[in-house]
């Protein structure tokens, strides 16, 4: 088998308008290492799905065919025409059309090794459907009725990227976000759900951005860049870090939630690697105390010419990573990797994946809203067609508390 055939094949599954908005920006890239065009955007509302297709056309170019994009990259599911900003309705729509969703994924994404699921956690569609679909895939699709699951799907690794709502948004979005985080982390029976849960917070990311590209573009661009750095580390044979590395030890530690921390375009001819890692650590995607990190991965991407000339090497990256963790008093499980990029020059990019950290700084922005709405929404259908029972909500709280307590600072 040729080396190019051994690379991990990723597919992106985005649900809801927010998830679709993020996924559409993958098409801005001339090259998506490991992903290519294996991207599916899903929605329960056809008009929202059309909005996503319009964005895809903008990113791909005016010559793209709308119906072809709908057939190859989009899927409308469920009969409710929207989830009404209530996550149980999004889950119910996914259950209703599970066979068609699975069939479409098998048709478009054959041979995938890992899925990157994307959803904004404040809404109802993606936040309701994505945790449910991951649970189904990992447990052999028990709710599927007529679809035959192909062998390759049984070994797929599931990573998820959940985006926290703006801190000023309405309380129901924060209720959804807390429930969505719990459901991405754990299933109804308390077992692990996604193999890796990546988190970003809109308000935190917007505060760190100063490029003036608009409310969502810069935030979503940062998310795409982090995903590409993470996936790109598994594309080369130099000290490869790949998805199995990201999920194995953190899952054993019950510390499999992560946030990216990124610094790009750093002049490698001037700055020391430890300084670059520190710059990245100051740009986490959620509010957090770096010193509560329990698992960490460092990916340094440098021009191939710098690597070939010996200006930067794998031992250099390992040493800098060890010095950086020591300087913060962090005793972490993790690895470091050096990844080449095309082109000359000396611009170096750094990604830190920080895992198992104290989630309280993030949850503090939403917990009061969650508790305020919990009593009124439990036992109701949120104005839709699907109930959220008290027992289901109690389990969501229990799962989150049992996961977060060992990861508290």
What layout of secondary structure does this protein have?
Blueprint: E1 10-15, H1 16-24, E2 39-43, H2 46-60, H3 66-73, E3 74-76, H4 87-96, H5 98-108, E4 114-120, H6 125-138, E5 157-164, H7 171-185, E6 196-201, H8 202-208, H9 217-232, H10 243-253, E7 257-267, H11 273-281, E8 295-303, H12 304-308, H13 314-327, E9 333-341, E10 347-355, H14 360-363, H15 367-377, H16 390-404
Parallel strand pairs: 1-2, 1-4, 2-3, 4-5, 5-6, 6-7, 8-9
Antiparallel strand pairs: 7-10, 8-10
Helix pairs in contact: 1-2, 2-3, 4-6, 6-7, 7-15, 7-16, 11-13
A few lines on this structure:
By secondary structure, the protein is α/β, with parallel strands linked by helices. The chain is 43% helix and 18% strand.
What does this structure look like?
By secondary structure, the protein is an alpha/beta fold. The chain folds into 2 domains: 224 residues, Rossmann fold; 101 residues, 60s Ribosomal Protein L30, Chain: A. It is 43% helix and 18% strand. The protein has a 10-stranded mixed beta sheet with strand order 3-2-1-4-5-6-7-10-8-9, with helices on both faces. Helix 7 packs across helix 15. The mean pLDDT is 88. GO terms for molecular function: GTP binding. Pfam families: Tubulin (PF00091).
Which properties best describe this structure?
409 residues; alpha/beta; Rossmann fold; 60s Ribosomal Protein L30, Chain: A; ten-stranded mixed β-sheet; globular; Tubulin/FtsZ GTPase domain-containing protein; GTP binding; Tubulin/FtsZ_GTPase_sf; Tubulin_FtsZ_GTPase
């Amino acid at each position: 088998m040729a080396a190019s055939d051994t690379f991990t094949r990723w597919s992106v599954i985005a649900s809801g308008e927010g998830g679709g908005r993020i996924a559409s920006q993958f098409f801005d890239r001339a090259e998506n290492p490991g992903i290519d065009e294996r991207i599916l955007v899903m929605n329960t509302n056809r008009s929202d799905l059309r909005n996503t297709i319009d964005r895809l056309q903008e990113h791909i170019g005016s010559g793209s065919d709308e119906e072809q994009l709908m057939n190859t990259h989009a899927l409308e599911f469920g009969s409710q025409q929207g989830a009404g900003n209530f996550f149980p309705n999004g889950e119910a729509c996914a259950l209703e059309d599970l066979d068609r969703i699975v069939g479409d994924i098998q048709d478009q994404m054959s041979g995938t090794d890992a899925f990157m699921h994307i959803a904004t956690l404040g809404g109802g569609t993606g936040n309701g459907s994505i945790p449910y679909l991951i649970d189904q895939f990992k447990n052999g699709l028990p709710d599927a009725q007529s679809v035959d699951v192909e062998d390759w799907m049984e070994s797929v690794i599931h990573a998820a990227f959940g985006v926290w709502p703006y801190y000023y948004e309405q309380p129901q979005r924060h209720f959804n976000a807390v429930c969505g985080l719990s459901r991405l982390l754990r299933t109804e029976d308390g077992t692990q759900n996604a193999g890796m849960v990546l988190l970003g917070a809109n308000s935190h990311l917007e505060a760190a951005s100063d490029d003036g590209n608009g409310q969502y573009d810069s935030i979503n661009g940062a998310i795409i860049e982090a995903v590409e750095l993470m996936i790109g580390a598994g594309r080369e044979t130099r000290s490869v870090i790949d998805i199995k590395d990201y999920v194995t030890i953190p899952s054993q530690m019950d510390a499999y939630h992560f946030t990216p921390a990124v610094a790009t375009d750093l002049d490698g001819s001037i700055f020391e690697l430890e300084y670059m890692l520190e710059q990245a650590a100051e740009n986490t995607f959620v509010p957090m105390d770096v010193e509560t990190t329990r698992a960490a991965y460092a990916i340094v991407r440098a021009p191939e010419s710098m690597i070939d000339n010996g200006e930067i090497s794998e031992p250099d990256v390992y040493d800098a990573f060890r010095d950086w963790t020591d300087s913060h008093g962090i005793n972490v499980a993790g690895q470091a990797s050096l990844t080449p990029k095309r082109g000359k020059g000396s611009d170096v990019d750094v990604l830190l994946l920080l895992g198992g950290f104290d989630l309280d700084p993030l949850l503090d922005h939403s917990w009061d809203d969650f508790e305020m709405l919990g009593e009124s929404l439990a036992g109701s259908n949120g104005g839709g067609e699907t109930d959220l029972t008290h027992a289901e909500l109690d389990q969501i709280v229990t799962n989150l508390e049992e996961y977060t307590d060992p990861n508290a600072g």
